[in-house]
Specification:
Elements lengths: L1 H17 L6 H4 L2 H14 L5 E3 L3 E8 L3 E10 L7 E6 L4 E4 L10 E9 L5 E11 L5 E11 L4
Parallel strand pairs: 2-8
Antiparallel strand pairs: 1-3, 3-6, 4-7, 5-6, 7-8
Length: 152
């Protein structure tokens, strides 16, 4: 997506700088400009792409104060290395641990997720958002738990 944008911007600059002069704009666009735009289009197909083994995990009913963990397996089904720049839970009670190394095309890696139910009675649903180098830039999965309150 970013490569497409750069190519489009480059072509826009060429058009903008030539449109105020006499002559046809199409006469001013060189073969090299068109090759750059085509190369940018081709790169978009070679981005990494994420596939999860699951996009949702239900811990079921747990007691308040318990920390539970699960693991999501992320597979790179794209054509270049997958980079996970950041993994963030929707609240501080949800802590993901993404892989630190790039995930090569065709390879998989675990993302561990811990949920701390302390102070979270009732039905809980949290998301984990990954910031990546995929075309959509953000990937997401969810966890859920029914937390029974502590006896007072």
């Amino acid at each position: 997506m970013m490569k497409k944008t750069i190519g489009f911007l480059a072509l826009s600059v060429v058009l903008a700088t030539t449109s105020c002069k006499q002559g046809s704009v199409s006469d001013k666009i060189t073969d090299e400009d068109m090759k750059t735009v085509e190369a940018d289009k081709n790169l978009a197909g070679k981005l990494p792409k994420v596939k999860f083994d699951k996009e949702f995990h239900d811990f079921g009913t747990i007691a308040e104060g318990v920390v539970v963990e699960t693991e999501f397996i992320v597979t790179n089904v794209g054509e270049s290395d997958l980079l996970i720049f950041e993994a963030k839970g929707s609240c501080g009670c949800t802590v993901p641990e993404p892989p630190k190394d790039p995930i090569k095309p065709g390879e998989s890696a675990p993302i561990k997720v811990a949920f701390d139910s302390k102070g979270k009675p009732g039905n809980q649903e949290k998301t984990v958002t990954l910031t990546t180098n995929t075309e959509i830039l953000h990937e997401m999965f969810r966890i859920k738990a029914n937390v029974t309150p502590m006896a007072k």
